[in-house]
Specification:
CATH topology: Phosphatase 2c, domain 1
Strand content: 25-35%
Number of helices: 7
Bound molecules: magnesium ion
Number of domains: 1
CATH class: Alpha Beta
Distance between the termini: 5 Å
Radius of gyration: 17 Å
CATH superfamily: PPM-type phosphatase domain
Helix content: 25-40%
Order of helices and strands: EEEEHHEEEEEHHEEHHHE
Structural class: alpha+beta
Number of strands: 12
CATH architecture: 4-Layer Sandwich
Largest sheet: 6 strands, antiparallel
């Protein structure tokens, strides 16, 4: 199988800096192993940018499984905080995908998302680790209500805040024609799933990635927007 990917990251229309980070920063094509990452940093001042960048560097450079890469990212942030205690409290989400031999391995912490588009149908394959999503899981809130719930931004899991973090891991057998999307909440807060599905329905990855950024900015762009699109070819 061959894989074709594109990435895009934009600060949006309101924020003055971009605390998101993506890997890689350029589009490409491979029939070997591919690693793709979206991280959405937080922590005030420059700390959010520092956290997402450290996390991505650690996760991208370790030759480990998807889950171990995310664990390495968490350790790297903790080590930086130990060196520079004023950075305590910085953290990041991470949604990381490794693709090899027709299998996608997803490792995920936070509220950035992974979606798969197969046969024209869009499915969110990651869970959101925030308070509103937990209410939904407990049956106390509908998925629809969660999209506007005030605690939807309150994360229940974040990299960088503690030595131990629980990482979701998901494995998917890929088929030619599959398209995967990783994105920060700057996209999903602004653009509903049915509009994302439509944008994913047509065009090359590069085109689609920037179209999604544009859709989020057209809707207000209140947060940083990061997008990774991967196509699975024969
Ligand atoms: Mg965000």
């Amino acid at each position: 199988m061959r894989y074709l990917w594109a990435t895009a990251s934009h600060q949006g229309m309101v924020r003055e800096n971009n605390e998101d980070a993506i890997f890689p920063t350029s589009s490409g094509e491979s029939s070997d192993r591919v690693v793709l990452i979206v991280a959405d940093g937080m922590g005030g001042h420059v700390a959010g940018e520092v956290a997402s960048r450290i996390a991505i560097n650690a996760a991208a450079s370790s030759g480990l499984s998807a889950g171990d890469r995310v664990a390495a990212a968490n350790r790297a942030i903790r080590e930086e905080v130990a060196r520079e205690p004023s950075l305590e409290g910085m953290g990041t989400t991470m949604t990381l995908l490794t693709v090899e031999d027709g299998v996608a391995n997803l490792a995920h912490v936070g509220d950035s998302r992974a979606y798969m588009s197969r046969d024209g149908e869009l499915t969110q394959i990651s869970d959101d680790h925030n308070v509103a999503a937990e209410y939904v899981a407990m049956g106390q809130l509908s998925a629809e209500e969660a999209t506007s719930h005030p605690q939807r931004h309150m994360l229940t899991r974040t990299l960088g805040l503690s030595r131990f973090v629980s990482i979701d891991e998901i494995s998917i057998d890929l088929m030619p024609g599959d398209r995967l999307l990783l994105c920060s909440d700057g996209l999903t807060e602004m653009v509903p799933d049915n509009v994302i599905a439509k944008a994913l329905g047509d065009g090359a990855p590069e085109e689609v990635a920037w179209e999604l950024v544009e859709l989020a900015n057209d809707a207000g762009g209140v947060d940083n927007i990061s997008v990774v699109v991967l196509d699975v070819l024969d």
